[in-house]
Amino acid sequence: MRLRDIFYDDVDAIVHYKNFKSLSKLVRADIHSVLFDIFVESPKFDKYLDDILLFPNLTHVELMFGLWMSWDFVLAMLKHSPMLQYVVLSMQIQNGFYQYPVWISPCFAPECLSSQLRKCSIINYAGRESELHFAKYIMQNSKVLRTMTVCTLRYSELKVEDKLELLKELSLCPRSSSICELSFT
Q1: CB-CB contact of 167 with 184 (8 Å)
Q2: For 60, phi and psi rounded to 5 degrees?
Q3: Which DSSP letter does residue 174 get?
Q4: Could you report the per-residue pLDDT of 11-69, keeping only the tens digit for each?
Q5: CATH number of 44-184: 3.80.10, 1.10.8, 2.130.10, 3.40.30?
Q6: What SS3 class is residue 85?
Q7: pTM of the predicted model, to two decimals?
């Protein structure tokens, strides 16, 4: 089963997940930001972030990091998906007025990082500090990570020198997995 789109306009039902059917057999999910704009501003959403469903069989997730999504949501998905093996984080291109939230590395590593996560991809990487810190967190805490792929924007404003500097900084980052390869395109 592939979860493609979810739309539910009752914020209370979303944060009180008991109203949803169990998704315990879910293996792959694509989560796009446009459908969740309705409850982004809700303080209830942040308050109940830890109460989202547990996805015990989810092995592949693709998250579209847009205006609504916070790093807390990304971390909650990692935390509640203990079998997660592949994460794709696609950064949406935003206009100059949008301030990306800051990634704050937690003092713990979700179970999937300790034993399952083998591949992580960050698409449309623009070299923002939060993206860099997230990539470092994944590499430093994923014990079985095989591949960390970072794809910059095709027509990025980043100069070649800046891309090389980002690659150098990521390359020097300590990795928890001795077999982790960094791919930078």
Answers
A1: yes
A2: -140, 125
A3: -
A4: 344 444 444 545 566 655 555 443 343 334 444 444 444 555 677 888 888 887 765 66
A5: 3.80.10
A6: coil
A7: 0.73
